[in-house]
Model the fold of this input.
Amino acid sequence: MSPVPETLEATQSIQEAMALLCAHDVSCSPVVNANREVVGVVSNYDFLWEEAYEGSLLPLEPHSTTEPNNLQEAYVTAARKICAQTVADIMSSSLLEGGHPPPFVTPDTTMREAAKVMMNAKINHLPVVNDIQSNQLVGMLTSTNDMKDLLHT
Done:
């Protein structure tokens, strides 16, 4: 497990989220509320999903015949759309507005159990919370942690 990571709040902009992931060279960050309870997770994959399936990050297809002036307008429009989005708009497994909680584990969870959770949920990271009832963040477990444990490094 990695110690308590940098966290995000649901109201932060996705630009702030991307900047945090890049600045700390991490691929995900838990999203917490004021009580440090995990309400979701934002990962690089969420940004890719947003672009690939929602089409909000880049406005044009690779072989577009759009005129240069329209191209600039398209990028300005896309930038405004990005600026209007928040972490809550793209995060995975949101508890906000009645959503499902993100998968998580506790410090007592074995690496084998955690690996099963990750495989079943098809994710590469898990928030570690102090206990199931309070759901307060104490760290993050990643597939890299799992691999290091398997290799005993």
